[in-house]
Specification:
- The protein is of the alpha+beta class and 131 residues long.
- It contains 4 helices and 4 strands; from the N terminus they run ααααββββ.
- The strands form 2 sheets. It has a two-stranded antiparallel ribbon.
- Helix 2 packs antiparallel against helix 3.
Length: 131
């Protein structure tokens, strides 16, 4: 039976990162629908399950690869933003963060020095802010 399934899956997309994410979302929606008894959550979970299996059994691997890459890029951007916010929150007592008015580069300045002239390390623009 395992060999038959392996032959069936030959040339198909299979489970990638997007499929794994969708399976977790389906599981969460199903658990929520059990507790809330919401018909809408049931429909969303079933639609997500159908979409996940459609992607897994699809033979259009290049299109599925493209979809997975978009998802991975979105997840990477979100993770970078989240880690930046976490870092800022951890350093909020020692430093202040400013954006350069010209190039939008983020500049970190120690707190408690009063009004200071900040020089952007990227474009060398000088701007005055209160730390």
């Amino acid at each position: 039976m395992r060999e038959k399934f392996a032959r069936f899956m030959n040339g198909r997309n299979g489970a990638d990162e997007l499929a794994r994410f969708e399976s977790w979302m389906v599981l969460i929606l199903l658990v929520l629908s059990i507790f809330t008894r919401s018909f809408i959550l049931d429909v969303l979970a079933i639609a997500g399950l159908i979409h996940m299996y459609f992607r897994m059994f699809s033979k259009n691997v290049s299109k599925r690869y493209e979809e997975n890459q978009k998802f991975l890029n979105f997840r990477y951007d979100w993770t970078v933003k989240w880690n930046r916010k976490k870092k800022h929150f951890a350093q909020r007592k020692q430093y202040k963060f400013f954006k350069c008015p010209m190039c939008k580069q983020e500049v970190r300045v120690p707190r408690g020095h009063g009004k200071i002239c900040i020089t952007c390390p990227k474009c060398r623009e000088e701007f005055v802010r209160r730390s």
